[in-house]
Amino acid sequence: MKANILYGIAALALASCQNSDYTITMELPNMADSTMVLLKGYESNVTTDTAFVMNGIATFNGSINGSQVRRIIINNSRLYANVILEPGNIKANFITACGEGTPLNEKLVEYKQWSDDLNEVVNTKYNAFMSDSTLSSDEKDAKYDLLIEDFNKSIMTYTDSVVALNKNNAFGQFAFWSSYLNMLEDNGSNYETYKAALDKAGSYIASFERIQEGTKQKESYNNTKPGTKFVDFTIENGNLDGSVAKFSDYIGNGKVVLVDFWASWCGPCRRAIPMVKAVYDKYKGDKFDVLGVAVWDKRDKSLKAIEEEDMTWNLIIDANSIPTDIYGIYGIPELILFDADGTIISRSFSPKELDSIVAEALNK
Question: Among residues 87, 89, 91, 95, which one has the least CA distance to residue 112?
């Protein structure tokens, strides 16, 4: 009996390791013959296969063990479709931006439709109260906060149910990543909720590279949340004259310091600079200072923007991703207020809140 059981287990294991064939078909009637179509790794963005349009159709053929997320991109266009690579005949639909025709791809279509429907409901509610002239600005802000809270709860509830049924396939990975790591107004502040969900989802979901990256960002954010001490970093040519700059040159030295992580190409960053300037002009002195840290940018672009915006406060440039990795910053501008001893007072607040937050810190 034992021999038969062991044989059955061995045969099952062997079968599970065998590759199965897949075909991806794309109907592209408006594309010229020989247009290149790229199949890319969703995590790495590395091209794993290429096909060419012929008579309005392009096709990928291959074999796959298990399932993997891929993105199909039409060369030199904005057309793309996310597909779950799995055995069977898959049709890439560039209208829905999904694959269709196989079990996991049909789940992907259903998930995409649910997400689109939720977004439509949220946008309708948002437009309704924002256009309501009887509401004050504070009342609109309160409604917005509640809307986002309800939106994120809906995402978590639905995603948890989806992931519970797809813990060992690529659709489960994609659903968890696209939901938990892309929730509105989420800078990592819900770290404990996220970690509990990830632990429940299991090791296969957690192994998805984009989830690993997102987890690291949330951990970094959690390690630098309000109440924690600043983490130092060094930028070799970070000063405007090209000399070495350290974050600790400016933080933890007896002043409350507002740090603005920004980039020259970032529209919201540029729009926030006048508000940073207003706070600097109002409160600068023995108790308060401002530091701008240029990230994800080229040195010459930063220098040009500094001149254009008349940024006269302390500046570090050429920081690239060094501070954003440390502080778990995924979007800019990111504003962080540090106390005189280097403790983080507040972060991820709106530029419109600058004056009140700084005034409160200085008057405590």
Answer: 95
